[in-house]
């Protein structure tokens, strides 16, 4: 990436993604459930939190590194699994290369447009993500494929339900990219020549199949075929979670925990980590911002499992606030997708560099030598900010 193509904030990455992508493609990256109240609160809630900085004692060098589920990472930021990253020809492979170049780990969606074998070759620090889709035999087969490919951990995503309505409407995503579909989309695509050229020079069209839902070496079902099967699969029980934990005996994360009682049940099921997440506002709208739920979950189970945070990260200072409130690390979604859309692998690296710089600056301002030195005392939490969901109330209180 040339210096004049560099962007200094995630917001600028988003602007460039919007300028570069066809309207329907960009809309799929920003869409959120119903009114979008949760996705807005995810971002805006960080602005309600303040820092308590030191004016003397700044450390000359700061250590940003940490570990997540046994993997050493250069900073407390990882790639969250997101489905079908066909906004750029290399998709998840480009993201994996960027994460590896910046020394961090990646979550790969089972609805990804690239196979786990391709992606893990670009970044061996890979956690494979599963939806509860199909029967136990099918789920166990996908887990086994991930194990054989070399995945270092498993993520079971539970913060995505059937709440798919959008008040402003969702873009019409095609089932397959055939000639008829391309002709229908041509009026909006022709106005984005640089995006069109990215695919034209590779002689491929955006892949809307999900190879990780099929057998190795097969193209896999279309996204909507897999989605349809998922909608017809009964949601998992806690017994199902415990069963999958037995099937996968390595590091295991349950993604989508917002309540204290769920966090405790996850611990009982034997998970290694939980992710406090509302799926970036793409699940049940008007759910509180994930950062509001984080402190109560950390207080309840933070000494028993690793607590990861996901939803609403846009700045390095957001990362520091989440870590200070007890998260081991954060996962990012839309931020890196905007970088990918704006400039491919270099764009994802750019976003990771922005976050790293923001983390380092915040640590310096707080007088901390390491991300491990952060505590809630570094954060100003306004009255009524936190949400202790799923906490049994004392009837005598």
Task: Provide a brief overview of the structure.
By secondary structure, this protein is α/β, with parallel strands linked by helices. The chain is built from 14 helices and twelve strands. The N and C termini lie far apart (60 Å).
What layout of secondary structure does this protein have?
Layout: H1 10-20, H2 23-30, H3 37-48, E1 50-51, E2 66-68, E3 71-73, E4 77-79, H4 91-101, E5 106-108, H5 116-122, E6 126-130, H6 136-149, E7 153-157, H7 179-189, H8 193-200, H9 223-232, H10 238-247, E8 252-257, H11 260-268, E9 273-276, H12 290-301, E10 306-310, H13 316-324, E11 329-332, H14 334-366, E12 379-380
Parallel strand pairs: 4-11, 5-6, 6-7, 7-8, 8-9, 9-10, 10-11
Antiparallel strand pairs: 1-12, 2-3
Helix pairs in contact: 1-14, 4-5, 4-14, 11-12, 13-14
